[in-house]
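Case 307 in the screening queue. Each case pairs one protein sequence with one candidate compound; here the compound is magnesium ion. For every case the pipeline is the same: read the inputs, emit a complex structure as tokens, and attach any notable structural observations.

Predict complex for case 307.
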Amino acid sequence: MSETIIQLEEINFFYNGFQAIENVSLEIGTGVYGLLGPNGAGKTTLMKIVLGHLRPAAGKGRILGTDLESGLTEVRRRIGYMPESHCLIPGMDAVTLTSYMGELSGMPRQEAIKRAHEVLYYVGLEESRYRLADTYSSGMKQRLKLALALVHDPVLMILDEPTSGMDPGGREEMLELIADIASKGRMNMIISSHILADIETTCARVLIMNHGRIVSEQNTRDFVDRETSILEVGIKGEARAFLERLGGIQAEMDRRGFLRLYLPADFPRMSLFAIAMEAGVQIRHFRPSRITLEDAFVTAIGESRAR
Ligand SMILES: Nc1ncnc2c1ncn2[C@@H]1O[C@H](COP(=O)(O)OP(=O)(O)OP(=O)(O)O)[C@@H](O)[C@H]1O
Ligand SMILES: [Mg+2]
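Case 307 output:
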């Protein structure tokens, strides 16, 4: 069983009476987790609670083995945080800023400087490393923020909207960097985004958030693996008779009244028409369906709105 990195139990948080986090319980193990949700879902707030920057009104939590209540000052040295907002100190060049962050996390000065050069090279800022960070473009600032989160070699990285403000090329490179860090397997990560594709490409598991609650948890890969073998079928007549003849095939009815059939990849699809005829029904709609994270997202968000 994988080690528990973060455990939250019934966490609630309010901003001046507004409930931004509602009864959130979750367990995050090793690996890369995505936190997906629309604007205002509570992603940043939840991350700040995990970092100990915000204190929940109620609930318990353990982060890297330490209770939330006991304070996370020590634990934060083992966490790298890439905030959503700008956190760059004006008047400092990238090397100075990055090594300063390393020192703040407890690294000896010489080691912090050496490591600053390494991580700036890694994120592709080696040529601009002596420039004032204030003069950086948005994309460069995002890279620098990643370097700041990496410099002290943390056990857990918390990346809040890492691709925000980046153009498509920059986004791609940022996602590649994140995937590269993840592939080394030493760091655990939580990545928030409202962009489904970001999460789909980088995270093994995804938590979907809406209105301060976790509304769904999924394995990202399940969707990708299933992709080819889902068929959307519209039936005129008694769907039950048709399904009975299909035997053990997993099926569900979607909101438009179509059946979603989860067929083994080698299932002869055209035989469905013969089966329909035997069952005395007609197939009126027949289309391969792709269940994506987007479907899961829309469904989860829809269900949480309906509550
Ligand atoms: N300092 C604050 N004071 C009052 N309300 C706040 C504050 N910060 C956030 N909120 C509210 O709490 C809710 C959750 O905000 P949060 O920033 O955590 O969402 P988010 O999922 O990170 O959104 P985004 O995708 O826009 O970054 C929102 O309704 C927001 O308006
Ligand atoms: Mg946010």
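Case 307 observations:
- The first strand starts at residue 4 and ends at 15.
- The chain has two domains: 4-211, 224-306.
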